[in-house]
Amino acid sequence: MLAIYGAGGFALQILDWVPKNDVVFISDSTSVVPGFRVLRQVPAGSRLVIAIADPVVRKNIAARYSDFETIVAKTAQISSQAEVGEGSIVCDFAIVEARAKVGKHFHANIYSYVAHECEVGDFVTFAPRVSCNGGVRIGDGAYIGTGACIREGLKIGEGAIVGMGAIVTKDVPPGATVIGNPARAK
What we know:
Blueprint: E1 2-5, H1 9-14, E2 23-26, E3 38-39, E4 47-50, H2 55-62, E5 71-72, E6 77-78, E7 83-84, E8 89-90, E9 95-96, E10 101-102, E11 107-108, E12 113-114, E13 119-120, E14 125-126, E15 131-132, E16 137-138, E17 143-144, E18 149-150, E19 155-156, E20 161-162, E21 167-168, E22 177-179, E23 184-185
Parallel strand pairs: 1-2, 1-4, 2-3, 5-8, 6-9, 7-10, 8-11, 9-12, 10-13, 11-14, 12-15, 13-16, 14-17, 15-18, 16-19, 17-20, 18-21, 20-22
Antiparallel strand pairs: 22-23
């Protein structure tokens, strides 16, 4: 059985890529997903994927469980030379290129791109259409907003936030938030 932790829009995206007859949703609230069971605990023996965008929340949930599933959409492309960590979700039309290393519980939303030789940490979120060019290093728990573009060879620090549409031309320190074109501290 596949347990999908979360019951929002991102969790529903996964349904297009998994057998629907063996899925339950896990939610800490009173969420309803028509046609599916929504539970408060992961059933014993289930494989788990966490479909919650917030890296801190995802990390806290992951600390309570084991036996994670990696979900890759049929239209996603992952190089045979790339590494993708357990519990990751790679959505439609996302690409992970040669010699890229992606950590555990990574989310690559639709049309996101991880170029060659990038190193992406654990619990990193790429919103839709993120472009991460060659040789970029991204620390654990970073959140990269929709349409952001990161120049090759840069470092994005642990827990950093890159705003929607930001064009990142310089390293981003740990915990910093950057926005705009070119991206600057908020």
